[in-house]
Specification:
Layout (H helix, E strand, L loop, with lengths): L4 E7 L4 H11 L7 E6 L5 H14 L2 E5 L3 H14 L2 E4 L2 H11 L9 H21 L14 E5 L5 H9 L5 E5 L18 E5 L2 H14 L12 H17 L5 E3 L5 H28 L1
Helix pairs in contact: 2-3, 6-9, 7-8
Length: 284
């Protein structure tokens, strides 16, 4: 029966990098059993001292990912004085890159974790947005960061997806004459809602092109009829006037990036103003 050994992972972040390296290496030693102990957010010499005391007693292997030059040197000194086996995963790579770039690394701990958090936030936002496209799942409207409202072909879906790539959870609600809006729309913070409008002639052109792409040989019906289109736009604009807290963005011949930037800017201003107001209320 083989002895089960322990590997201690020390990291100034989450330790995921060192853990991944260890698991990859262990695939080459399938007959050996090990278990891992991971110490996250290690930033001080006192923390390292306590870990080395334990490792020295049990003859454990320490694998570490530390960006601080001072702490890495401290670990190297303890390696010699405590007679503990260690493996520096990041140090050699940081040195090689530093020599190549002729520049010292920033030595900020936990940056990879921050990058990963941002990535997963964007993935989550995109999944949420796709699940709430075109008025679906309105019962969870309150979870959205942004709610877009507009009539058909006002770029609601592409704009929603574009905003989700920036980490915003977006719901888009189609406006259809004679069809009531979801009651939950009026229960959420109205500052999350952004209205989209468009010039009737531009909208008619877009709708005609869509019908052509769908294989319609003749443009019939009300969908691309200029009178119907004009009535829809005017009806929506009147609805926006009645809901004065919904800012209106005209998307006529405007790039998605431009409209998205305007929405993000206004959303940020509203959040800052709300934060200042809450802070002022607390002080009074």
């Amino acid at each position: 029966m083989t002895e089960k050994l322990k590997i201690i992972i020390i990291s100034d972040g989450t330790g995921e990098t060192a853990t991944g390296v260890c698991r990859a290496v262990m695939t080459q030693f399938k007959d050996r059993e090990v278990y891992f102990t991971r110490y996250k957010n290690v930033r001080t010499k006192d923390q390292i001292d306590a870990i080395f005391e334990e490792a020295a007693i049990h003859h454990d292997l320490i694998v570490y990912t530390i960006v601080s030059v001072e702490l890495r040197q401290y670990i190297q000194d303890l390696t010699r004085t405590k007679h503990v086996r260690t493996l520096d995963v990041l140090g050699p790579a940081l040195t090689s890159f530093s020599n190549y770039f002729e520049q010292e690394p920033s030595a900020e701990p936990g940056l990879l974790h921050a990058v990963n958090d941002d990535y997963f936030k964007r993935v989550e936002a995109m999944e949420f947005t796709l699940n709430h496209d075109d008025g679906r799942n309105t019962e969870s409207l309150y979870l959205a960061d942004i709610v877009l409202v507009g009539i058909s072909r006002t770029s609601k879906t592409p704009l929603s997806v574009f905003l989700s790539l920036h980490g915003y959870k977006v719901v888009n609600i189609p406006l259809i004459p004679d069809t009531p809006l979801p009651p939950d729309l009026f229960k959420i913070d109205q500052r999350k809602i952004f209205a989209l409008t468009i010039d009737p002639m531009a909208l008619q052109h877009i709708r005609k092109n869509r019908l052509t792409r769908l294989g319609a040989k003749e443009i019939t019906g009300d969908y691309a009829n200029i009178n119907q289109v004009t009535n829809e736009v005017e009806w929506a604009n009147q609805l926006f006037k009645e809901n004065k807290r919904w800012p209106v963005f005209n998307v006529t011949e405007k790039a998605l990036e431009e409209t998205a930037a305007e929405i993000i800017k206004l959303l940020s201003m509203r959040k800052n103003n709300r934060f200042k107001q809450e802070k002022s209320d607390e002080e009074t």
